[in-house]
Amino acid sequence: MEMDIVFPGGARVDALMGNMTVATNQDGTAPTPFALFLASIGTCAGIYVLGFCQHRNLPTDGIKIVQRLHSSAVTRMIERIDLDIVVPPTFPDKYYDALVRAADQCAVKKHMEIAPSFNVTTKVAA
Predict the structure, then answer these.
(1) What's the rounded Cα separation, in Å, for the pair 62 and 86?
(2) Judging by beta carbons within 10 Å of its beta carbon (0-12, 13-18, 19+), is residue 22 exposed, middle or buried?
(3) What are phi and psi of 113, to 5 degrees?
(4) What residues pair up with 64 in beta bridges, in sequence order?
(5) pLDDT in tens, the chain (126 residues)
(6) Which DSSP letter does residue 28 get?
(7) Is-contact 78 109, C-beta < 8 A?
(8) Is 0.85 topped by the overall pTM?
(9) What 3-state DSSP class applies to 67?
(10) Collapsed DSSP state (helix, strand, coil) of residue 106
(11) Which of 19, 40, 57, 87 lies most in the core, judged by the most C-beta atoms within 10 Å?
(12) Tell me, what DSSP letter sits at residue 97?
């Protein structure tokens, strides 16, 4: 997979992926890159919860995931992320554990658990 990161002006930095553009910036008109990264965790879990419900014809009305970040007081780095799947009172309780297992399949989470290495270089355009 390859994507281009471009600088369209101002504080904006965009990721070009196929025919999609993901805009980020630092001035409040788009998510910051870090906010987008954090959102990818909860939305990835959400994709798996949505798929679980759709596969079983369970309604998703009233379901949400609340994501909480817990940071170290010393390093200010995130030490723990909580994802609470909140369901309406009418949601069948026999599926509670299965919802957690579905959300636990999130690819973003799995990649964070076994972090990739990074290789940053400078190249001259041809």
Answers:
(1) 8
(2) middle
(3) -65, -30
(4) 86
(5) 899 999 999 999 999 999 999 999 999 999 999 999 999 999 999 999 999 999 999 999 999 999 999 999 999 999 999 999 999 999 999 999 999 999 999 999 999 999 899 999 999 998
(6) S
(7) no
(8) yes
(9) strand
(10) coil
(11) 87
(12) H
